[in-house]
Amino acid sequence: MGSSVERCARDDALAGVAAGVACALVGHPFDTVKVFAQGVESRARASTVAATRAIYAARGFRGFYAGVSAPLIGNSLETGMNYAVFHETRRRALDAAARRRDGGATTLNDRLCASALGGGFAGAVLCAFITPFELVKCRAQMGGGGGRAWRVARETYAARGAFGLFRGFSHTLAREIPSGAIYFSSYELLQSFVPRNGASSSTVDVTEAAFEERDAAGLALEAVAAVGCGGLSGVITWLAVLPLDNAKTIFQCERPGGAHDLSPLALLGRLVRERGVSGVYRGAVPIVARAFPANAAQWLAFEFVSRSLHHRRVASSP
Question: Which segments carry the Solcar repeats (predicted)?
Fold first, then answer.
């Protein structure tokens, strides 16, 4: 599709870094409200409105960007690695599917399965990288270190050593594998419904759609598709994994030996008993409010930076 120059892992990584920056800047205030609502014990302070007021009253507007340095650095590098690992894993899975078909064209089902596999594997690979950033971010958002990520990191290291920064690794893994699979496969499925030159969704690889030559109307369509499909895939994913994210947040903010110092499933069960099913969906409003704009910005940045880098390689190729 497009040119004969194939995807490049370096381009995917660089475009992913840009996407991560866009996502962090747009989504962090919503994430701060979500983490605060998840972490407080009082039901009265757990609502989105109450959490928002509490944060603003305590720290002003800057409070919504508490701990932003950790995800701004971590999320950009994480997203770059995530897209690179995802596309490489997906490519290998599709190559295997094509061989099973004796070199025949892959189907939409093949591509959805490859995207789910690639997303889940990328999530697993990145857990070792993102766990320390998630821990620092969550504790800073709850007011630890005066809301300063670097202070939280320093205090955690002083108290527990490097190993302390990886508290919650298994809980992050339990969230990241299903969320990666759902995220990338739902984006591909939603993109397959976007009409492109009358081509059938069963024959078009939507991950390379933005590489095609486009006039102004075509570029506008790709932008709308990236925003709409990216935002919706983010909402779908977060609604699916929010209980696991709740458990991860609470575990990482809990002291070792505390009541919530439990394995992922045991902690999830305890939260259901303590708070009810609705309780494990604490933070759902800011999550949904954040998921659409943050993921829309992420996919828009990724698709168009990736497109720019791709066309530059095409122009310089012999």
Answer: 7-92, 110-193, 221-308
